[in-house]
Amino acid sequence: MKLYSSHTSPYARIIMLAALAAGKDEIELAWADPWLTPPELTAINPLSQVPALLTDDGVIIANSPFIIDYLFDHPLRGARATALAGYGFALLDQVVKAYSLNRFKPGTGPEHPHIERARQAVVRGAKAAPQLDAQSTAIGHLALGLAFSYLQLRLPDLYPSLSDANRAAFERFQQRPDVRAVAIANLEKHPATIGALRAFF
To answer: Which sign does the torsion angle of CA 172, 128, 164, 162 carry?
Structure first.
C-alpha cells in the first residue's frame, strides 16, 4: 500500500500516527505538493488532494476518514468516539478553510467574507473543543491534537482561543515520540515508509 501525502498535511499526519500505533510499518509513503497540482498526484487523485491511499489491489481511497475506516477496521465505534473524531476533523476543516482562503485572496479588492466567517468558526470551535487526552492513540484524540497543531501553525493569533486545559494537554501531546516523529521538519526528509518514521523517535 502507498499513502500519498505532503509534509504539512495534518490529515495525512493523523493517518501516520494511527499507522504507527497499529504497527502498519509496511505502508509506503509518497510525497507531493497538492497546491501545485502535480501530475503524479492527479493521476492518483484528480482532485489533487492528500492524503490518498493506493491499496495493494489497485483501489484508490481518498479523504482521510475513509482511509482510516479502511486501514484500521472501522475504528469509530459508538457515539462518543465518533463524535470526538467528527469534532476534531470539523475543527481542522475550518482551520484549513480560514488559512487557504486568506493565502489565496486577491491582492486587491475587498477581503472574501468567508475568511472572517471561517475565523470566527475556528474561535468558537477552539473554545468549545472537547478535552484532548494527550496520550491517547484513539482516532478522535489524534484528530483533535492535529487540529490544535495546525491551528498553532497556520492561525497562531487564534490559538489562544483554546482552553487553558487543552493548551496544557497539547503541550504534552507535542512531546510524544510518535508526534515528534511526524513533525513537519522530519516529513520534509521524505521518509519512504511508516516504519522509517521510527528513526525519528
So the answer is: positive
